[in-house]
């Protein structure tokens, strides 16, 4: 049984006010080409088909194009589950009817009680598709309280009528404990209660996961995230995006091949002074890429974004490194910080911008100025 496993398409994603729909179409065409070449028996989409619960018309149109090509033209069925970005009820529209034409949309816990069974020359393969769910939904469904995602996921899987005579494939949208995250995944909950133990997937001959955007496996090679369709944050600049081809043998063993996804325009971070970046840009053949520029200049700059945009028309974000250095330290909120005088605070600012302390003369001048302001404020 040959499977193509993909996930986290996020169709309709707007990235820094820029619609990625053309990049997404470019990537989906590569998947269609792979279906033509490799002739899988099923395509799995492990959640986050859309970026939002009410996707833009262009995103629905693009998914429609894919479904027409995959099921209509190439006659390959699709099994898809809802992810945390999808609106499950909307995505599940007409699911009971659509499955007869090969589009299996599993978006509710009721639906997942029955496997989707496909056969190859060695017999049946049962696909168990678990749509994204939170502990409260599972508690409602099972009638017993669920403290966290791990417990909820375990309870769901334990009560499935799995027949071990067949080969069983699991499809789920969840966060495996210890796996690598990126900045573009929306947290499922605050504080780590969203983590699921990979060991609950051990009984399955393959587990097709969605949610984390970096292609990776956890625990064993058959428990795997395909990764997202595109790079959806600058933290993913070094990811190699791909989708996964899995061949399941007669005994349930599997062979895994990663099929790379080429990005139409890459997404990357460049770093240096404005002059350095502008000079380097002249020889940059990939100037149409999506760019985040991190400027290391210490002095004020005139219109840096406009200057960079002359060379990089798709520059999306500009950061000034010198103003970023204290972030993450929760500096402003510390009680130490609250005790600091105006002079201390100005001194910090000056040091951060100029990399040197105020001279004695500057300090005196500043003290005088601050005193004058205070006096003015108290007398007014
Ligand atoms: Mn996602």
Blueprint (SSEs and pairs):
Elements: E1 2-6, E2 14-15, E3 18-19, H1 21-38, E4 42-45, H2 57-73, E5 78-81, H3 88-91, H4 95-98, E6 103-106, E7 116-120, E8 123-130, H5 135-142, H6 149-158, E9 167-173, E10 175-176, E11 195-196, E12 206-210, E13 216-218, E14 220-225, E15 242-248, E16 254-260, E17 267-272, H7 274-281, E18 290-295, H8 304-309, E19 315-320, H9 335-338, H10 342-354, H11 360-379
Parallel strand pairs: 1-4, 4-5, 5-6, 8-9, 9-12, 10-11, 12-14, 17-18, 18-19
Antiparallel strand pairs: 1-15, 2-3, 7-8, 13-14, 15-16
Helix pairs in contact: 1-2, 5-6
The structure holds manganese (II) ion.
Residues 8, 48, 83, 85, 185, 211 line the site of manganese (II) ion.
Structure characterization notes:
- This protein has helices at 21-38, 57-73, 88-91, 95-98, 135-142, 149-158, 274-281, 304-309, 335-338, 342-354, 360-379; strands at residues 2-6, 14-15, 18-19, 42-45, 78-81, 103-106, 116-120, 123-130, 167-173, 175-176, 195-196, 206-210, 216-218, 220-225, 242-248, 254-260, 267-272, 290-295, 315-320.
- It is of the alpha/beta class and 380 residues long.
- The protein folds into three domains: 2-260, Metallo-dependent phosphatases (Purple Acid Phosphatase, chain A, domain 2); 267-323, no CATH class; 335-379.
- It is elongated, with a radius of gyration of 26 Å.
- The termini are far apart.
- 29% of the residues lie in helices and 24% in strands.
- The strands form five sheets. The protein has a six-stranded mixed β-sheet.
- The mean pLDDT is 92.
- The chain contains eleven helices and 19 strands.
- Helix 1 (21-38) packs parallel to helix 2 and helix 5 (135-142) packs parallel to helix 6.
- Strand 7 and strand 8 form a beta hairpin.
- Bound molecules: manganese (II) ion.
- Manganese (II) ion binds next to loops.
